[in-house]
Specification:
alpha+beta; two-stranded antiparallel ribbon; 32% helix; globular
């Protein structure tokens, strides 16, 4: 993870070029790994071509997400 931004935004840093959605996919996979869930469970809601993305994560991973934010 790359840290946090504000109170409720997690920064996910990847070293994959932002070409053909590869960086987005890498970020979603990295987030899923950090949360301990399957990549398919982390759903991109908006921001496919933006640096800022909104994702949906499984409800049972909310506590882990908060741990990552607070770290």
């Amino acid at each position: 993870m790359g840290g946090r931004y504000g109170d409720d935004t997690l920064v996910v840093a990847v070293q994959v070029p932002a070409v053909d959605g590869r960086a987005t996919e890498a970020a979603l996979r990295a987030l899923a790994k950090a949360l301990g869930c399957r990549a398919a469970e982390v759903v991109l809601v908006s921001g496919a071509t933006s640096r800022t993305k909104l994702v949906e994560v499984p409800d049972d991973r909310a506590d882990r997400f908060r741990e990552l934010i607070d770290a």
